[in-house]
């Protein structure tokens, strides 16, 4: 198996929750970064998630088009074709951080297409989509989540929601680093009452929840980001007690949790978050840097070969995009392996 079916994706999430590990979810913006992510997962012998953001989807369609649906469809088609050559790992495709203003031009049309695919007996293009309601009131956030969850069920996909604000910047959206970055068990109870739990009575995955516990997008020096992963434990524990008799309830971890804004987090903070039921951790800033740092190093070392200095002709083999592209892919792949090891998914690819 290479690209997850809905059943396989559900099994992946359940295995991570039961096994106490999480999958790196790697943001990609090109075929090169996609190939780097696949290379990293294969090297780590880890299943994983590959995702495109609202900006990444537009970028994938080309600067002239900037069409998120076209970019997403092109990504999914290319990714499926290439991923089939990696038979020892399973990957899922995900759309990341769709705010309300982009629903009508991005995730809703994709879900509509996937519903039609399912009706024709096909697999959906993507295995999950994220609704980012972090900037709207909780009632409105949940109202939209309910609508999208109904469509997700028809499309055989999993919905990801975000409850609370994540600080920093992601694709042009900025949030302050303040007390709004911390969700509460009361927030979680409202989500569970409105949406049900993360799995249905048969144990199939329905949605994942990114409750915030001080998360911040981007890269920061130590001390700026103050994570409180113990909040996730409180959310899980109180929800488990309140919904203990609900079909599909898990004894200790009723929610499939997602960790956003993890760059620069301490290892013990990540480990504690995973122990409380985080099954997916977004990795973007660190892999962006790993990819670009290798390119910068190549250009610095070979500046007189990639530039036609003093009327010379340079060296084609060094400014050929494949030369520095291979270095960038290898560097990013190594960072993906590091994430798999840190999150515990390395060596656990499902058979």
Automatic annotation (TrEMBL):
Residues annotated as binding dihydroxyacetone phosphate: 218, 261-263, 282-285
Gene Ontology biological-process entries: glycolytic process
Signal sequence annotation: none
Catalytic residues of the enzyme: 96 (proton donor)
Binding site residues for Zn(2+) 1: 97, 217, 260
Keyword Secreted attributed: no
PROSITE patterns linked to this entry: ALDOLASE_CLASS_II_2
Cofactor note: Binds 2 Zn(2+) ions per subunit. One is catalytic and the other provides a structural contribution.
Coiled-coil region(s): none
Pfam family, one: F_bP_aldolase
Residues that bind Zn(2+) 2: 132, 162
Catalyses which reaction(s): beta-D-fructose 1,6-bisphosphate = D-glyceraldehyde 3-phosphate + dihydroxyacetone phosphate
GO molecular function: fructose-bisphosphate aldolase activity; zinc ion binding
GO (cellular component) term, any one: cytosol
Role this protein plays: Catalyzes the aldol condensation of dihydroxyacetone phosphate (DHAP or glycerone-phosphate) with glyceraldehyde 3-phosphate (G3P) to form fructose 1,6-bisphosphate (FBP) in gluconeogenesis and the reverse reaction in glycolysis.
Name recorded for this polypeptide: Fructose-bisphosphate aldolase
């Amino acid at each position: 198996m290479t690209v997850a079916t809905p059943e396989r994706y559900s099994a992946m999430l359940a295995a991570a929750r039961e096994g106490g590990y999480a999958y790196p979810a790697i943001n990609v913006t090109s075929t090169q970064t996609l190939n780097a992510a696949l290379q990293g997962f294969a090297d780590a012998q880890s299943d994983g998630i590959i995702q495109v953001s609202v900006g990444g989807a537009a970028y994938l369609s080309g600067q002239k088009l900037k069409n998120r649906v076209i970019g997403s469809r092109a990504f999914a088609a290319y990714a499926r074709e290439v991923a089939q050559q990696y038979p020892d790992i399973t990957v899922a495709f995900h759309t990341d951080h769709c705010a309300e203003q982009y629903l009508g031009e991005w995730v809703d049309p994709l879900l509509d297409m996937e519903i039609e695919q399912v009706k024709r007996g096909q697999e959906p293009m993507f295995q999950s989509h994220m609704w980012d309601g972090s900037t709207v009131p909780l009632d409105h956030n949940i109202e939209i989540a309910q609508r999208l969850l109904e469509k997700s069920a028809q499309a055989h996909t999993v919905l990801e929601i975000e409850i609370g604000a994540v600080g920093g910047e992601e694709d042009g959206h900025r949030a302050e680093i303040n007390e709004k970055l911390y969700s509460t068990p009361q927030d979680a109870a409202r989500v569970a009452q409105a949406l049900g739990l993360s799995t249905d009575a048969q144990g199939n995955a329905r949605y994942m929840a990114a409750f915030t516990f001080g998360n911040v997008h981007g890269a920061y020096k130590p001390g700026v980001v103050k994570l409180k992963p113990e909040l996730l434990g409180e959310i899980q524990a109180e929800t488990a007690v309140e919904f203990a008799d609900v079909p599909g309830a898990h004894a200790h971890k009723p929610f499939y949790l997602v960790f956003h804004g993890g760059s620069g987090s301490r290892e013990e903070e990540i480990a504690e978050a995973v122990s409380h039921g985080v099954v997916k951790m977004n990795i973007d800033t660190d892999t962006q840097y790993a990819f670009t740092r290798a390119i910068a190093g190549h250009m610095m070392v070979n500046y007189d070969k990639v530039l036609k200095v003093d009327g010379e002709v340079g060296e084609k083999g060094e400014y050929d995009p494949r030369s520095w592209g291979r270095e960038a892919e290898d560097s990013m792949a190594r960072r993906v392996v590091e994430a798999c090891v840190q999150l515990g998914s390395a060596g656990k690819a499902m058979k």
